[in-house]
Structures are given as structure tokens and as C-alpha cells.
């Protein structure tokens, strides 16, 4: 089916705000002025005003393919000038705990194992047209990254019940793969191999699409668990708090633009 591209207008371009889970998406939608929902190619998009910026908000769903598909649809229909992806993640750096924020200074995959056209092993993804290798890690847009760093210094982030300290925010490396990690040994193996700070299932797919299309992108993750054997229990217990923190950071970044 051909994408139904919206007509061009003289209004400022959109900022696309994407989330994998409904909780953070609903919180951002609730912050919009003049929110209007529409369905395009079976996906729901909500447009409106956040601060001084026109934004489009949508749910990607879970996993790399869903995230890449939704990002491509946003680009085809709304031609955003920037993309911010947010949601929850598992923390694998030892000093991080649920409730903390990891701003993706760079994001990459932990499940890519391939070979180049000259049969050299690689962990890099490949451009579908030029067949050139993408970066091993997709860098954050410097402007969005700087705004997110500044925003998290002054935000009052909610504490996870039972935490021994307030949430903190770091700039770190986020790894993506089509695997829900709920094993301490597996999480530690990824941390050690990739020097990862957080792991999730969508961010690098969004970043790859943005990189290949030349669209500034930032991935922001709020930790809901430690990717260990308690991950499912912790995710369910801490999801709303983690989603609230990620939505706060996204709103602050957009309002600072």
C-alpha cells in the first residue's frame, strides 16, 4: 500500500516523539495542546503542540521491526525534523538502578552477526541501497543530547519504591536486540562485550532509520529493571514510575527547543 503523505504546509516541521509502551506515550499525549488523533496505514498518530513545538506522537510497539516500521511511517507521513524515542529499559551497569535515566549518547545492536561483501565478519548493519556499513554505534544528535543532559540536571524524577537514593541520569551506551533479557549472566555478558549501560528492544532500529535518512535522533531510556531473573516482576512493579520519568525528560527536551 502506498503511503498517504500529508500535504506540505507553511507551519513549522514536526518533532516526532515515539515510544514502545503505551504508558509513556499516553503521558506525552496528555501533555499536548490541541491534540488530534488520526489513523494512517493502520497506525494511530496524535499531533499537537508541546510548548512552542509541533509534535507527532505514536506508539511503535515492541521489537526492532515494529520500531523501524513505525519510524519509516512517521517520516513518510509527517516529515519530522527530529525524532526522540523513549521508553523503559533494563540497566546493566552495576551502579544503575530502576528509576535511573540513560540518555543514549550512542546506540547499537547486540544481536547483529554478519559478514561483509568480502566475507569479513562484522557486527555492523548495512545500508540497504549502497551496501555500505552503518556505524557500529549510532551517535545521538548533539543538540538533542545537550538539551537532555541539561534537562535532567533540574528535573524532579520520581523514586522507585524501596530505592536507597534518588534517580540519576547518565549519558551512556544503549544496546538493542530482539530478546527480552531476564538473566543476570546474559545481561553481564552483554555489558562486558559491548560496555553497555542499558539494554532494550527498539532504540537502535529507530536510530538506524534516522541515520540512513539524515534525521537527528535521540534515544532516552528510563530503567525499569536490572535485566536479571527479577526483570519481569520489576518491570510490572516499576513500569509506571519509569514511564513517568522518561516522559518528563522528553517533555523537558522538547520545551527547551
From TrEMBL:
It is an enzyme of class 3 (hydrolase). This is adenosylhomocysteine nucleosidase. One of its GO terms (biological process) is nucleoside catabolic process. Pathway: Amino-acid biosynthesis; L-methionine biosynthesis via salvage pathway; S-methyl-5-thio-alpha-D-ribose 1-phosphate from S-methyl-5'-thioadenosine (hydrolase route): step 1/2. One of its GO terms (molecular function) is methylthioadenosine nucleosidase activity. Its EC number is 3.2.2.9. It comes from Fibrella aestuarina BUZ 2. Residues 15-255 form the Nucleoside phosphorylase domain.
Amino acid at each position: 500500500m502506498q503511503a498517504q503523505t500529508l500535504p506540505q504546509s507553511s507551519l513549522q516541521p514536526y518533532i516526532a516523539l515515539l515510544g514502545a509502551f503505551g504508558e509513556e506515550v499516553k503521558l506525552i499525549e496528555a501533555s499536548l495542546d490541541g491534540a488530534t488523533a488520526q489513523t494512517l496505514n493502520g497506525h494511530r498518530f496524535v499531533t499537537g503542540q508541546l510548548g512552542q513545538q509541533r509534535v507527532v506522537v505514536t506508539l511503535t510497539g515492541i521489537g526492532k521491526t515494529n520500531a523501524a516500521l513505525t519510524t519509516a511511517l512517521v517520516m513518510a507521513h509527517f516529515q519530522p525534523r527530529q525524532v526522540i524515542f523513549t521508553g523503559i529499559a533494563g540497566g546493566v551497569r552495576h551502579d544503575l538502578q530502576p528509576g535511573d535515566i540513560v540518555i543514549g549518547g550512542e546506540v547499537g545492536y547486540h544481536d547483529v552477526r554478519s559478514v561483509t561483501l568480502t566475507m569479513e565478519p562484522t557486527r555492523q548493519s548495512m545500508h540497504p541501497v549502497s551496501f555500505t556499513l552503518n556505524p557500529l554505534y549510532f551517535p545521538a544528535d548533539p543538540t538533542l543530547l545537550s538539551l537532555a543532559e541539561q534537562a535532567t540536571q533540574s528535573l524532579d524524577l520520581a523514586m522507585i519504591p524501596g530505592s536507597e537514593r534518588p534517580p540519576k541520569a547518565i549519558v551512556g551506551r544503549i544496546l538493542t536486540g530482539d530478546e527480552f533479557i531476564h538473566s543476570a549472566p546474559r545481561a553481564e555478558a552483554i555489558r562486558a562485550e559491548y560496555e553497555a549501560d542499558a539494554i532494550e528492544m527498539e532504540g537502535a532500529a529507530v536510530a538506524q532509520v534516522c541515520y540512513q535518512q539524515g534525521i537527528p535522533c535521540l534515544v532516552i531510556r528510563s530503567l525499569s529493571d536490572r535485566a536479571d531473573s527479577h526483570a519481569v516482576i520489576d518491570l510490572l512493579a516499576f513500569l509506571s514510575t519509569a514511564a513517568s520519568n522518561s516522559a518528563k525528560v522528553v517533555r523537558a527536551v522538547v520545551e527547551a527547543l
